[in-house]
Amino acid sequence: MPVLLVAAIFLLLICVWILIPPFNGLTLGLAVAAIELSIYLLALNVLFLALTLLRRRRKWIADAGVLATNCVICSLPWLALAGAKLDRSAAYRSVNVPITERAIPVTLGREHSHIQAYLPAGSRRTPAIFAVYGGAWRNGTPQYDAALNRALAHQGYAVFALDYRHAPKYRFPAALDDVRSEVTFIRRNAARYNIDPGRTAMLGHSSGGELAALVAFDSRSPVRGLISYSGAIDLPMGWKYPPVPDPIGVRAVIEEYIGNTPARAPNRYRAASLLGHVRRGLPAVLLIYGARDHVVDIRYAWKLRDALRAAGTRVTFLQLPWAEHAFEAVPFGLHASVAYRATLNFLDSTLR
Question: With contact defined as beta carbons under 8 Å apart, do 126 and 196 qualify?
């Protein structure tokens, strides 16, 4: 089999995950990678297609057909993003503040852990962001999302990547209690970390988005903003109507986190779901969700957006038309820069 045809078929096996809904953890990872790297895959396919057309060796039509198909598939996420009505105002500033990174020891229940801090240099007190990683409430470390956390720190925001105890060993509200206690601890030691405790925001990813929102929506919350990257929203409905296909087993994930089914633990499900916490006087909110998310259905994000706006909350809603769940795991991918621009714009307008 000609080398170019082998390469074309190999690329096709990657590109098809731009179209095929993921059905398990492995295929979810493939879908995220294929979509976020689609612009690079497109360039590679165009290069191979040009070589094929120039050489026109035996069976070149088959090679060209596969490569042309790949090009069409890989162009779809970019075309969808280009056609979306997004706020494309520039957010990048010519700022590259030196930062230091340090691990701050903490005790969560009986577990010893740490907060990963990204601290801008300088004598002036800085705004602070409390970042909460995702991982279905059962995986992850404060080292997750390091690229985004460092980028925000270089823009002059102190970023504290928090940790929390994981399910199923620890059930709700253990993780929420951990995040709340860490926010309180950092704010009480604001002088030590050179931050302004009156200018803080929560930032969460997936399951961490749910935890970050519950802290931000608390009536005693000190934060001025919330940023949610694909955060979980409505746990009872998510349990009742899991996604199809369901790449992570949403129903089992939620049961491990809460400790039971909605019928047997209705109060805990209500307490862990965001819609019941919407009220007047909430901090500003930025919601970032992918329209092709196969873990958190975009319709829950619409519902939360509408409820927040009805309550008078300032809401910025960024819907990425071809993004899959956890798209930001590829920091140099198609959608990460768009989300970063929106994040920085939101923080500048909320905390500066």
Answer: yes
Could you tell me which of 341, 290, 229 has the C-alpha nearest to residue 80? 290
Name which of 313, 316, 301 is nearest 349 in CA terms.
316
pLDDT tens figures, 291-337: 999 999 999 999 999 999 999 999 999 999 999 999 999 999 999 99
Confidence of residue 92 (pLDDT cuts 50, 70, 90): low
What DSSP assignment string belongs to 58-124? TTHHHHHHHHHHHHHHHHHHHHHHHHS---------S----EEEEEEEEEETTEEEEEEEEEE-SSS
Contact of 17 with 70, CB cutoff 8 Å: no
| Tens-digit pLDDT profile for residues 251-290 | 999 999 999 999 999 999 999 999 999 999 999 999 999 9
CA separation (Å) from 347 to 155, 220, 271, 343? 10, 21, 27, 6
**Homologous superfamily (CATH) for 99-351:** Alpha/Beta hydrolase fold, catalytic domain (3.40.50.1820)
What is the spatial distance between Cα 255 and Cα 253, in angstroms, rounded to a whole number? 6
Non-local (6+) Cβ contacts of 239 within 8 A are 250, 251, 254, 255, 261, 262, 269
pTM of the model: 0.95
